[in-house]
Amino acid sequence: MGFKATISGYLLLAAAAFAVAVGWGHAASAQEFVFRGNRAQAPSVSQYMKQAGPQTKEVPHGALKIDGVPVNCGTRPTVLNPEFDSWGGAFPGFLIMNTAKIQGLSTQVKLYIYSHECGHQFIGASETKADLFAIRRGVRWGWLDAQGMEEICTFISKLKGDAVHPAGPKRCTTMRNYYRELVNGSQQASSGLQPNTLGPSN
Questions:
Q1: Are 155 and 18 in contact (CB under 8 A)?
Q2: From CA 34, how far away is CA 142, in angstroms rounded?
Q3: 52 within domain boundaries
Q4: Closest by alpha carbon to 17, among 2, 32, 37, 28?
Q5: Domain assignment of residue 202, yes or no
Q6: Chain segment 127-166, per-residue pLDDT in tens
Q7: Structural domain contains residue 195
Q8: Which residues form the domain of 170?
């Protein structure tokens, strides 16, 4: 099986938080792409960029900024692809951001999208855990506040559920509750109390 055919197979296994991809150039409705196949068969950055086209650009880890805010996902690079089917995506070892599609979104929503895709690198395919990863990172790294949480909810609530994604409004409720728990936990910790936490600790 050639690489192009293999990629088509990946896409049949994909479907994650911001776009169900059905090919490199065309999307079905509206959730993200996350690789769900055998990690050993995942493409490298160079293989993905060769298949996706010359409009792609690799940004090394530590070099990416979103609206001036430095971001990283460990040592993983990010591929910028303005023709990607969704806002963001993830293959093992690298992230994808659609620079055209995220235009017009607020900074905190963009950071949420990036952090959600980063979450898949650490916790796997679970959409709920990737959401919690993003919210936890936003609180801990200081870029997520109550207004940003509501902007994320407005964004995500428009998305329909599918086989792997809860419906957007349900995701909003889960993230909002977790955000409140983290914020309240931080306040309790400053008073010498230990908060309860959800999800992984990355």
A1: no
A2: 26
A3: yes
A4: 32
A5: no
A6: 999 999 999 999 999 999 999 999 999 999 999 888 888 9
A7: no
A8: 3-189
